[in-house]
């Protein structure tokens, strides 16, 4: 997609060597999200250069994202094509589910082992905003962060791939409480419960993320993806399966290191 195509759906993509930065760029509506934005995010994932090692996702201005654009729930603005959220009502259950799967692809690619994804989060991350942050491997936040899974307040469930990572990070009971009550999770709690890896003063957040990015691109090519692939899903594997994957990955690493040493 061209920069103009991305701008039309409120996104910016900057690729600088091994680092890609995706910015939600609709600050006038607090970076509210639309289906067109989710489809474009999926397209970014499909077309990202192979040598990108870190993807940073952030929001323009003081708010990461206010979640779903409320205009998408306005029946008077909706077509029956599934481009709006209310437009899903015109589809059969199977068609609506397939359409939501397309939306979800805007989020799932951020888990690809070939890079590490980081959500750099300032201010509000509500609903779809919270879920976009959850789609990333790491969340690094400003001390004014306000996560809220607000779907239940609208009579909806979180459906943009956020429920699994939320349970993995904070556990079932805490995840249920956060989703069902739609309450705000601030910076200190986010770090304490494992939702964020670090919280920083707002004016120090960019530098903290830049340091993290530098540390992630420093290791020999291929080792961070191999490590991510190993750790991802480790909790779902038994010990024998996990240690088999460790052995196989290590043999590949031994060969890669030996080849690099010549
Ligand atoms: N959709 C569309 N426009 C939005 C928006 C949203 N989600 N959130 C904010 N805006 C707009 C406001 O209408 C306002 O526009 P105007 O200047 O034209 O009046 C502008 O952004 C600024 O908003 P505020 O003055 O409210 O900004 P704030 O900084 O004081 O507050 C906020 C920020 C707490 C995020 C507040 O705007 C808010 O609560 N927004 C709604 C959040 C929400 O309920 N999102 C839906 C979550 S559920 C979800 O995402 C569902 C899903 O995926 C299925």
**CATH topology type of the largest domain:** 2-enoyl-CoA Hydratase, Chain A, domain 1
Query: Tell me, what's the shape?
Result: globular
Count of individual helical segments: 10
Evaluate the radius of gyration. 19 Å
What is the CATH class name of the largest domain? Alpha Beta
In percent, how helical is the residue content?
A: 40-55%
First-to-last CA distance:
40 Å
Q: How much strand?
A: 15-25%
The CATH superfamily of the largest domain is 2-enoyl-CoA Hydratase, Chain A, domain 1
For the biggest sheet, the summary is: 6 strands, mixed
Chemical compounds bound to the protein: acetoacetyl-coenzyme A
Low-confidence stretches: none
Counting structural domains, the number is: 2
SSE series: HEEHEHEEHEEHHEHEHHH
Please name the CATH architecture of the largest domain: Alpha-Beta Complex
Mean pLDDT, all residues: 95
Number of strands: 9
GO molecular function, one term: isomerase activity
Protein name: Enoyl-CoA hydratase/carnithine racemase
Pfam family, one: ECH_1
Family: Belongs to the enoyl-CoA hydratase/isomerase family.
């Amino acid at each position: 997609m061209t920069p103009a195509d991305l701008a039309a759906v409120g996104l910016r993509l900057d690729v600088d060597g091994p680092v890609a930065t995706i910015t939600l760029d609709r600050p006038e509506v607090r970076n509210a999200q639309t289906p067109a934005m989710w489809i474009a995010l999926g397209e970014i994932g499909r077309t990202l250069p192979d040598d990108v090692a870190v993807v940073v996702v952030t929001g323009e201005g003081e708010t990461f994202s206010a979640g779903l654009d409320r205009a998408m729930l306005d029946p008077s603005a909706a077509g029956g094509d599934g481009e709006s959220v209310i437009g899903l009502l015109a589809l059969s259950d199977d068609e609506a589910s397939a359409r939501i799967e397309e939306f979800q692809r805007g989020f799932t690619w951020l888990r690809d082992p070939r890079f590490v994804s980081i959500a750099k989060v300032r201010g509000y991350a509500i609903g779809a905003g919270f879920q976009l942050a959850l789609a990333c491997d790491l969340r690094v936040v400003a001390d004014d962060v306000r996560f809220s899974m607000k779907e239940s307040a609208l009579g909806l469930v979180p459906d943009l791939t956020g429920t699994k990572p939320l349970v993995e990070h904070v556990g079932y009971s805490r995840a249920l409480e956060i989703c069902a009550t739609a309450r705000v999770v601030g910076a200190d709690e986010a770090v304490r419960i494992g939702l964020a890896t670090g919280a920083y003063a707002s004016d120090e957040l960019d530098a903290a993320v830049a340091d993290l990015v530098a540390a992630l691109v420093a290791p020999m090519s291929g080792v961070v993806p191999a490590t991510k692939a190993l750790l991802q899903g480790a909790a779902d594997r038994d010990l024998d399966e996990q240690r088999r994957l460790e052995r196989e990955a290590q043999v590949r690493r031994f060969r890669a290191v030996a080849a690099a040493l010549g």
